[in-house]
Amino acid sequence: MISIHEGRTSADLNGTWAYALEADTPGEELGWTDPAFDAATWRPVELPTNWYLTEIGDFFGSVWFRRSFTVDDRFVGQRIFLRFGAVDYYADVWLNGTYLGSHEGMFNPFEFDVTDLVDRDGENVLVVKDGAPRDPTEYVQATFPENPLSPDHQRHQALAISQVKGHMIDAMHRPGAMTKYRQDGNSGGIWGSVDLIARPAVHVAHVRISTRIGIKKDWLGDGLDKPDGTGLVDVDVRLVNTTGAVVTTDLVLGVAPANFDGDPVPDRVRRVTLTPGVTVHKMVVTVPEARFWWTWDHGHPSMYTARAAVGEDVVEQRFAIKEIRHDDTTGQWYLNHKRIFLRGMRYISSQWLSEANPQMWEEDLTKMLDMQINAIRIGSHVEPDGFYTMCDELGLLVWQVFPLHYCVSDSDDFIERASDMIRDMGEMLTNHASMGMWSVFKEPEIYLLPDKPNNYHRLCPVLKETLATVDPVRWIHLGDYREGAQNLMIGGVHDGDRPMDEVVVQPQIVEFGAASVPVLETLRTFIPEDKLWPPDWDTWEYHGLFYELAFKGAKVDLGSSVEEFIDNYQRYEALVVKEQIEFIRQRKYAPVASMYLYYWSDSCPIIGSGLLDYYRRPYQVYDSMKAVYTRVLISLEREARPYIIGREKVYQRGQTFSAKLWITNDHDHAIEDAVVSYAIVHRESGEVLHKSEFSTRLVADSVERVDQIVWPIPANAPGGEYRVAMRVADAAGAVLSDNYTDLVLR
Question: Which InterPro entries match (predicted)?
Answer without folding.
Answer: Beta-gal/glucu_dom_sf, Galactose-bd-like_sf, GH, GH2_Domain-Containing, Glyco_hydro_2_cat, Glyco_hydro_2_N, Ig-like_fold
